[in-house]
Design a protein that fits this description.
The complex is a heterodimer of chains A (about 375) and B (about 110).
Chain A (H helix, E strand, L loop, with lengths): L9 H14 L6 E7 H9 L2 H4 L4 E8 L1 H4 L2 H10 L5 E5 L13 H6 L4 E3 L3 H10 L4 E8 L4 H14 L4 E7 L2 H10 L7 E4 L2 H6 L5 H5 L5 E3 L4 H17 L4 E3 L11 H10 E3 L2 E4 L3 E4 L3 E3 L8 H4 L15 H5 L31 H9 L13
Parallel strand pairs in A: 1-2, 1-7, 3-4, 3-5, 5-6, 7-8, 8-9
Antiparallel strand pairs in A: 10-13, 11-12
Chain B lengths: L4 E8 L6 E6 L2 E6 L13 E5 L2 E6 L1 H13 L3 H10 L24
Antiparallel strand pairs in B: 1-2, 1-4, 2-3, 4-5
Chain lengths: ~375, ~110
C-alpha cells in the first residue's frame, strides 16, 4: 500500500474549485448542510472553507452519534454498571464522554469494570471469557454501526450465550434530517449526504428530500476532491432549479445499499416511538431498540434502568448551531465554559462535533494542511 | 466513530465462512463477513471494515485511495488502534491514544 502525503490530483482540485467559483458567480447565497460528522471533520481539517467563495456557506449537521447522545443515557448505562457483576463495554469514542458524575473512564478509575472494545463481537467475546459476569455493550452509532450490533446479537442467540446484553443507543439519520427541515428557523438550500451511512441504507431513503422538500442532496466521499465535486453537483442542480438525489461516492456506496445489513437490522431492532437527541430534543421514530424476539439481549429489559434525564444548560445554544442558525463561535459558551477538555454542549464532545472541529482547527490554521495553496 | 478501514482478505476460515483473516497495513486480524453474505468476498478481495465487520467490497485502487483519505484526515493512528484492538488484543493497544489529547489549545482571543 503506498502512502501519498499530498492530495490526490491537485490540478483537478484546482479546476473543481474554479468551477465552483464559476457556478456560484450568480451571487446568490447558498446554504449547504453536511449531515455527517466525518464530513465536518474533513471540512475543517482540509480548510475547505478557505477555497470556497463567500456566498457558499457550509452548515454542520447532526451526524455525530456521540454528540447527539443525551447525557441521561450515559448516566443510565453507568448506573446499570454500578452492579458488581456487570462489565461495561463500549467503543473508545465513548470513554471520555461526560456523564453527570464523570465519564466511563473516570468510573473505571473509581473501580467500575469498564472495558474498551473495538467491535461488538469483542464485547460478545468478553461474555464468553467471563461466564460469571454480565457483559453489557453500550451500543452507539448510526446505520453504519447498527448492523454490526444486530449481527452480534444474532450470533449470541445462535451460540446460546446468556450473559450478554445491549444498551442500545443506535439512531437513524433520516428522522434527524426531517426534524431539521421541519424546524421553523431552518434555512437550507441543499444537503451533502453521508458517505458510510449510505453504504448501508443506499440512496433511496433520501428521495423525499428531493421530491417533497425540493432540496438537492449529493451523497459524498470524504476527500477534498470528493467534497468539492459534490458541491459542484449541488450548485448545478440549484442553478438549474432541480432537486435530485445524486451519488458522488459510487466507488463505495451502491444505490440500493447493503441488503444483508438492512436484513440484520430488521431482524433484531424495532423503532422506538421517540428518542431524545442532544440539541434537537425528542424526535419521533428516530432510534432503535432491541425487539421483543431478542428481548433477552436487551439491557433495558434485563436490568433496572433509572431513566435519568439531564437537561442541557440553557446557555448552551447547541440546537441553534445544529440547525445552522448560529456558527459554533457565536454560542455564548464557546471557548469559554465549553471547550473540548470540558465540554458542556453536545457538539464539543467528539472530534467530529462541529464545535470541537471549529475549536481544534479554526484557531490553529498554521498547523493545517493548506488546501488553498493548491486551489 | 465512523472510520471505514480498507483491508485485504487473506484467508476465509474453513470452519466458519463468515470469519476471515484480513490484512491492514501489515496487521492481521480476524473480521466478520456476515454483512456481505449477498456478495461474498474471496481471498485477495479488498473490503471496507468498520468495527470489525466488512461493510462493502471495494477495488484495490479504492482501498489505496481510502487509506490515503484516512491519512489526510489524520485518522491513521486511530485506524491502526482500532484494527490492533480487534479480538481484545489489549496488550497491543496504547491506552493513551484514547485519553484526552494533549494538542487541545486555548482559543486565540
Amino acid at each position: 500500500m503506498r502512502f501519498v502525503d499530498e492530495f490526490r490530483e491537485p490540478e483537478l482540485i484546482s479546476k473543481t474549485a474554479e468551477e465552483i467559483r464559476r457556478l456560484a458567480g450568480t451571487g446568490r447565497h447558498f446554504r449547504m448542510m453536511e449531515v455527517c460528522g466525518g464530513h465536518t471533520h474533513a471540512i475543517y481539517r482540509f480548510g475547505l472553507k478557505d477555497i470556497l467563495p463567500e456566498n457558499i456557506e457550509l452548515i454542520h449537521g447532526p451526524g455525530c452519534p456521540v454528540c447527539v447522545l443525551p447525557m441521561g443515557r450515559i448516566d443510565d448505562g453507568l448506573a446499570i454498571a454500578q452492579q458488581p457483576e456487570v462489565i461495561f463495554a463500549a467503543f473508545g469514542d465513548m470513554m471520555r464522554v461526560p456523564g453527570t458524575h464523570g465519564s466511563p473512564l473516570e468510573h473505571k478509575a473509581r473501580g467500575m469494570d469498564v472495558r474498551i472494545v473495538y467491535s461488538p463481537s469483542d464485547a460478545l467475546k468478553l461474555a464468553r471469557l467471563n461466564p460469571d459476569k454480565q457483559v453489557m455493550f453500550f451500543a452507539i452509532g448510526f446505520e453504519t454501526t447498527a448492523p454490526s450490533t444486530a449481527l452480534t446479537v444474532m450470533r449470541a442467540r445462535a451460540e446460546g450465550i446468556r450473559n450478554f446484553s445491549i444498551f442500545c443507543n443506535h439512531v437513524t439519520i433520516i428522522p434527524a434530517i426531517r426534524a431539521i427541515l421541519d424546524s421553523p428557523d431552518m434555512r437550507l438550500d441543499a444537503f451533502i449526504g453521508p458517505g458510510h451511512v449510505s453504504t448501508v441504507i443506499g440512496c433511496r431513503p433520501y428521495e423525499w428530500i428531493a421530491q417533497n422538500e425540493r432540496k438537492p442532496i449529493v451523497v459524498s466521499g470524504f476527500e477534498p476532491l470528493d467534497m468539492l465535486q459534490s458541491i459542484v453537483m449541488l450548485l448545478r442542480q440549484l442553478n438549474a432549479g432541480e432537486a435530485k438525489v445524486e451519488n458522488q461516492y459510487k466507488r463505495v456506496v451502491p444505490w440500493e445499499g447493503n441488503r444483508a445489513a438492512l436484513r440484520a437490522m430488521a431482524e433484531v431492532f424495532q423503532l422506538r416511538p421517540y428518542f431524545e437527541w442532544r440539541g434537537l430534543g425528542f424526535i419521533s421514530q428516530s432510534a432503535l431498540r432491541i425487539n421483543d424476539k431478542y428481548a433477552e439481549f436487551d439491557a433495558e429489559q434485563r436490568f433496572e434502568v433509572p431513566g435519568i434525564r439531564v437537561t442541557d444548560p440553557k446557555a448552551a445554544q447547541c440546537g441553534e448551531v445544529l440547525k445552522g442558525v448560529l456558527k459554533p463561535h457565536q454560542c455564548k459558551l464557546f471557548g469559554r465554559e465549553c471547550t473540548p477538555e470540558h465540554p458542556i454542549g453536545a457538539l464539543m464532545v467528539s472530534t467530529e462535533g462541529s464545535c470541537a472541529a471549529y475549536y481544534n482547527y479554526e484557531h490553529r490554521k498554521a498547523a493545517m494542511v493548506n488546501l488553498s495553496s493548491i486551489a | 466513530m465512523c472510520l471505514a478501514i480498507p483491508g485485504k482478505i487473506v484467508e476465509i476460515s474453513s470452519e466458519n465462512q463468515d470469519s476471515a483473516l484480513v490484512e491492514v497495513i501489515g496487521v492481521r486480524r480476524r473480521i466478520d463477513l456476515g454483512l456481505l453474505q449477498d456478495d461474498k468476498p474471496v481471498p485477495g478481495d479488498w473490503v471496507l471494515v468498520h468495527v470489525g465487520f466488512a461493510m462493502s467490497k471495494i477495488s484495490e485502487q479504492d482501498a489505496t485511495d481510502q487509506m490515503n483519505t484516512l491519512r489526510m484526515l489524520g485518522e491513521i493512528d486511530g485506524a491502526m488502534q482500532e484494527v490492533k484492538g480487534y479480538g481484545l488484543n489489549e496488550d497491543e493497544v496504547e491506552l493513551e491514544l484514547i485519553l484526552p489529547r494533549p494538542d487541545y489549545k486555548e482559543p486565540i482571543q
